[in-house]
């Protein structure tokens, strides 16, 4: 559907994607996927084997040291070569896995610099022939939905115990991508929930609210930032140029992407991709920007995993990455999420800041058995090793004024990851001081709490397919805004001879809201049931699980983050 110049509201959600792991249970095929004819014998299938890494505990320790201003190691980031030497799988692990694959005729495999992943290509006919020996129980079929076709196994499989101890997961086997939201459906929901008319957010609005002047643009030679796009999303250079012509006249900026990593798809640009690119480049203005892109929904791999592999295979990459995608924690294997956490640690210890959108479903809702419900956290937003960005709205829709909670802003407590030490004091303070919390049966009070920070997330102007579209909303909007501001702070740090910010959270929680506008008004949505009646958590002074520590006050945050102890 093409959306023309009409007054409309679109939630540009944190799009859903994920991976899957070794299976010890029956695989449920989603009802909207249909199994079709046989797979051609000449078709190729790509599987990713995640080899067990070494020294993961030491990696975490180093990450926290280089990210803590009170540590003597603060800012002493590792090179990719040093990360490789630390986590590279043991010679025994590499030997066992390579021999296992080769003994079953799987020889077309590629590794990456850190040597902890193998991507192997084989024909589907060949795979089904040797399935009982390589991955007993596996059987591939073709499935289709809404014009999308992919190859998956509908049956559980096992890995021999001699090999299992050397693998974290096998990717590209079971997971069916969840169905994305229809824009008409989202539009209807947003209108029914009471969206108010106002003129919309533009770079000028954001720069005014967060106290960015025309002089606050990048100038350091070694700075760069990036967005990553998945699920058939890509930007169009003409849209970026048009956007900057319309909305970028008040500050120095770039109108072209510095580098595209991957292959852009054909056809119309994606709204999500346009939003990410246009707003990281208008907030982090005049800073070279990369786009990591995928041409489609990989038949045998979820593209998020491909992006993680790229980060581990490139020595020089941007310092700030923003990603507006996620998935429900309960739809993923713990083993997969734990391994992805290690990949985030590998990036952070190199001085790279990774930001994820908190999601657009508030606290979320999972319907359990016997009519009971619980909140539904999102991953990677719930990862302890990324900075998660929530969303806000203007209190007065006709003015650049103070902010309140955007009711869709994702937030809550992980059911998988324990609360990291850096946030214990802040989160416990919230839980003890706020009255009217949801029942404890709805959330895990000891889990990693998110978001960490927030920004405006509703009513953005975006140019896509050469058409300015008003009122695009979601934490997909707030995340590149925060990313651009962090890139500007990196820029000033580089000019002073300081290292990049890297993994921000330990420093952010030490600041205890310094440099940020505290958001204390409003709640986000959750389960529509008798107990919580659609309300999740509410904002409060200091940190809260709706807007984190608040939204950026650029001059104050800059001062707090460029001063070394």
TrEMBL record:
SUPFAM superfamilies membership: Protease propeptides/inhibitors, Subtilisin-like
GO molecular function terms listed in the Swiss-Prot or TrEMBL record: metal ion binding; serine-type endopeptidase activity; tripeptidyl-peptidase activity
UniProt cofactor(s): Ca(2+)
Catalyzed chemical reaction(s): Release of an N-terminal tripeptide from a polypeptide, but also has endopeptidase activity
Cleavable signal peptide: 1-18
Keyword entries, A-Z: Autocatalytic cleavage, Calcium, Disulfide bond, Glycoprotein, Hydrolase, Lysosome, Metal-binding, Protease, Serine protease, Signal, Zymogen
InterPro entries: Peptidase_S8/S53_dom, Peptidase_S8/S53_dom_sf, S53_propep, Sedolisin_dom, Tripeptidyl-peptidase_I
Active site (catalytic residues): 272, 276, 476
Compartment(s) where it occurs, according to its Swiss-Prot or TrEMBL record: Lysosome
PROSITE patterns assigned: SEDOLISIN (PS51695)
Transmembrane intervals: none
UniProt entry tagged with the keyword Metal-binding: yes
Keyword Cytoplasm recorded: no
Protein task: Lysosomal serine protease with tripeptidyl-peptidase I activity. May act as a non-specific lysosomal peptidase which generates tripeptides from the breakdown products produced by lysosomal proteinases. Requires substrates with an unsubstituted N-terminus.
Protein name: Tripeptidyl-peptidase 1
Source species taxonomy: Eukaryota, Metazoa, Chordata, Craniata, Vertebrata
